[in-house]
Amino acid sequence: MRPVEIKKDIFWVGAVDWNSRNFHGYSLSPQGTTYNAFLVKDQQTVLIDTVKHDFRGQFFCALSKALDGRGLDCLVVNHLEPDHAGCLAEVVERFKPKRIFVSPMGEKSLAAHFHPQGWPIEVAPSGTKVSVGRRTLTFVEIRMLHWPDNMLTYIPEDAIAFTSDAFGQNWATSERFADEVDRSTLTRLMAEYYANIVLPYSPVVLKTLDALAGMNLDLDMVCPDHGLIWRGRDEVAFALGKYREFAQQKPKNKAVIVYDTMWRSTEKMALAAAEGLVAEGVGVRVMSLKHNHHSAVMSEVFDAAAVLVGSPTHNNGILPLVADMLTYMKGLRPQGKIGAAFGSFGWSGECVKILAEWLKDIGMELVEPQVKVKHVPDHAAFQQCFDLGRAVGQAVKKKISG
Hints:
Elements: E1 4-7, E2 10-12, E3 15-17, E4 22-23, E5 27-28, E6 33-35, E7 38-41, E8 45-48, H1 56-67, E9 74-76, H2 82-85, H3 88-95, E10 99-102, H4 104-114, E11 121-123, E12 129-131, E13 136-141, E14 151-155, E15 160-162, H5 183-198, H6 202-215, E16 221-223, E17 230-231, H7 233-248, E18 252-259, H8 265-279, E19 283-288, H9 294-301, E20 304-310, E21 313-314, E22 317-318, H10 320-332, E23 338-345, H11 351-362, E24 365-366, E25 371-374, H12 379-401
Parallel strand pairs: 8-9, 9-10, 10-11, 15-16, 18-19, 18-20, 20-23, 23-24, 23-25
Antiparallel strand pairs: 1-2, 2-7, 3-6, 4-5, 7-8, 12-13, 13-14, 14-15, 16-17, 21-22
């Protein structure tokens, strides 16, 4: 892989994962991803992050070409997750950097992941400044974006920030910069990344954005560890503004109906509820869990005002895919949603009660009455589902207008 000079003497030396489809084992990445690492060449050379170990060949090829015969003086570890620190030990072994910078929490993660012996580790709390020649490295902790160890590295002389997982997207491209690709696709992928990875830390995002604004950093380029680089002040403002918008979780005039079904009774109920929502002028996405991964559902739930969940009763509970979805959703902690439950049953009928308890536990405001149908829905049951959709739609419009 060839390095790409992104600013004078600053190089992208990462790797492109064209075949990534399952990101970290829990979220889809249908467009692939990149693992971004960066080399700064000054009086001292500085490597910022590495890549997933599977891509060590691409990485070391790019790094060696960018170094062009020079050694490696400093290594900055912005994040210890294996897709960014997968080649860390080999970098230390090969290049023997004189200084390795980590955040205070990063020091603990480094010890747990690598059990280093004799590494020249230096802990860099927020505000630490290190001269590497003409340039200064300024370290800012950005804890829980999205691990406790995450750190941002800022170089004021180049108005550039290396932000680890913040402001990224999962997108494998031949382009390196956000202004080179389709903006609507980029924005969608950025939102999907946020919805499935950063969402539970939205309060931290807002505090971090406020803190960065208070530091009055001159930012002409933002380099995340995944996806495209934001270059130019307008592009940087767009990225930061999108994160603030995402973190505020302002709902759209939209509802998501997510369900699983055994003999299609619950599916028919879902479609009837959708008609009720449409009748109220609310946009709706109907998503079968047999056909949609939980991360794809969550990407739609992210900006929706309401979530309707349906399942038949199964072994006195709910179907496994619905339980999986609700577990995943609860962990991501979406805020300010309206919820509703529906389902069918054969003889015991606990499904709707269980779904309602899940939605309350997630923090949703429930619309009553929930709808439960024995065996196959008839016309009266379809009317109940339609009315439920209308009631949810009315609640959505009230929330949006409020």
